[in-house]
Amino acid sequence: MSNRPMSAKQYKAALADFKISQSYAGWIFGGKSKNSGRLWPSEGASYQVALIISLMRLYDIHPSDIEEIGAPFRTKKK
User: Fold this and answer.
1) How far is CA 53 from CA 20, 34, 62, 64, 75, in A?
2) Mean pLDDT computed over every residue of the chain
3) How does residue 77 score in pLDDT terms, banded at 50, 70 and 90?
4) Whole-angstrom Cα distance, residue 55 to residue 13?
5) Which of 1, 16, 51, 53 sits between 20 and 30 A of 69, alpha carbons compared?
6) pLDDT score of 31 more than 80
7) What's the pLDDT band for 73 if we cut at 50, 70, 90?
8) Is 26:32 a contact under the CB 8 Å cutoff?
9) Is 7 within 8 Å of 14 (Cβ atoms)?
C-alpha cells in the first residue's frame, strides 16, 4: 500500500478530468518518465504533483497554463 497523498485512482481521474495523457502530465509536472508513466498511475502522485492538481482544480487552471509557467524552469534536452 502506498503512502502518497493522491491515490493512483485519484491521479488517473484527475488526468481524465483535465483530458491529458500520462506522458503530457509527466511533462508539465516535471516528472521523469518512470514516475509519470508507471509510478504515479500505479502508486499515486507525489505531494508536489497532488498539490499542483489540487490548485489547478481550485483555481480552474488549465494544464497548458502549468506548462507555460514551468517553461522557464525546464532544462532543455541536449
Assistant:
1) 12, 19, 10, 13, 22
2) 87
3) low
4) 15
5) 16
6) no
7) confident
8) yes
9) no
All three cell numbers of 8, joined, read: 493512483
Listed residue (16, 17, 15, 9) closest to 27, CA to CA: 15
Nearest by Cα to 47 from 77, 16, 3: 3
| Residue linked to cell 491529458 | 20
- The residues with which 45 forms a beta bridge, in sequence order, are 6
Grid cell in block for residue 67: 506548462
Find the DSSP H helices in 35-76: 40-43, 47-58, 63-70
